[in-house]
């Protein structure tokens, strides 16, 4: 299947590049290597296979991505709270906390990947 850019002649939007985990420079290369197992931790490629853009440019570059990851986890926690409190208001507080922690833990690896990709798109050079 061809890229959206090739089909319509226009570049993909920023949100599509981030969700597809694509290179911030060309939008075509994969940022992370494919996993062999669901329990395997994400591993970044050193550079884009399409445009040779280096993802990890200096030591400590992704420290700022931790703030984005934290923000994603807080957003997921708030949304989980609102959904449970709206539709299942009879849930006790301890179960509510456990469900929120479980949701945040379930999305932690995806948050790790998304936060790095978002950070690279915010600070491309």
Short description:
Helices cover about 50% and strands about 0% of the residues.
Multimeric organization? single chain
User: Over all CA atoms, what is the radius of gyration?
Assistant: 18 Å
Number of helices: 5
Mean pLDDT over the residues: 87
Order of secondary-structure elements: HHHHH
- Going by helix content, strand content and strand pairing, the class is mainly alpha
Please report the distance between the alpha carbons of the first and last residues. 30 Å
Number of domains: 1
Strand-residue proportion = under 5%
Number of strands: 0
Fraction in helix: 40-55%
Query: For the report, how would you describe the main beta sheet?
Result: none
Question: Poorly predicted ranges (pLDDT <50, ≥5 residues)?
Answer: 1-6
Shape, principal axes of CA atoms:
elongated
